[in-house]
Amino acid sequence: MSVEGSQGSTGRYRPTNSNDPGWDNGQPVDGNRDHAKYDFCGHVSKGGIRRLKQHLVKASYKGTMYKDVRKCDKVPQDVVDVLRSFMEGKQKITEEKQSKKDEMIRNVNVYGNDDDEVEEVEIQIPKKRKGPMDAFVAPIDVDFCPRAPNSSENKKALENIHGYIADSFYENSISFNCARSDSYSKMMQTIVNTMIHRIERILDRRRSGMLQKPLHAVAHYLNPQYYYATLTSSDEMESNTKLKEGLLDCIAKLALDEEDESQILRDLIVYRTKVGRLGKRGAQACVKTIVPG
């Protein structure tokens, strides 16, 4: 061994709680650990301690040449052996962790059998007939087809879920067999069911409050399928103060002038009393099947 090699940095620049032997053979430049100066050849690298070790093990590891790494010709063989042993140990730990994580992901399946082919689901929505409010609202695309979990985004999200579960098991030293236990299955099922019920409650609250908004109130009032549903339906709507307030509020906002507003109110009388064409037997027979445009 050369005298220069025996006078390494002896780890005095090594960070606290680090056992990396690379700092035994180099030192940071101006206190910056990303810039390391090698003790044996004086070369300065901007790749930190990792690049320093790659340089000292003669720019190769397990038969693979490191890209853009200079070979050090002055490093003693015993230093090379120590660094190689340390690097192999770190690599082995990384590979074992990844292997356990992959095994955990294979065992943890929140949505069922991963081998089942997930196909795109298309929701069939019946063609919507035009109604009296279509002039004031945006149309809905009835051909909308939501993407199922075979899209790259949803697959990535599913992989993230599996990864997070696997990480929690690994970091807390929980046996991977736990994912196969009945208690684990019950726990996951309870979580899924709880989330479904929470979503249902949110949708129910939104749906129940829709008639509090003027535009929804008008759409409900002007839908013959609701207004003429029973003999008392119209009376119930007419006595609903909030419903009538929403109707009148929309009329006031949408009417161009007083004459326009008066005409709308006259048309509502025709609608409410079923006179003219609305009172004919054919029109009443189609109330539940055709919404007049």
Summarize the structure.
By secondary structure, this protein is mostly helical. The chain has helices at residues 48-56, 77-107, 152-171, 182-208, 214-221, 224-227, 233-238, 241-254, 258-273, 281-285; strands spanning 26-29, 32-38, 44-45, 60-61, 64-65. It has four domains: 5-96, no CATH class; 108-174, no CATH class; 175-207; 211-285, no CATH class.
Task: Report on this structure.
Residues 1-20 have a biased composition (Polar residues). Residues 1-31 are annotated as: Disordered. With 293 residues, the protein is mostly helical. The protein is 48% helix and 6% strand. The protein has four domains: 5-96, no CATH class; 108-174, no CATH class; 175-207; 211-285, no CATH class. The protein contains ten helices and five strands. A three-stranded antiparallel beta sheet has the order 1-2-3, covered by helices on one side. A two-stranded antiparallel ribbon has the order 4-5.
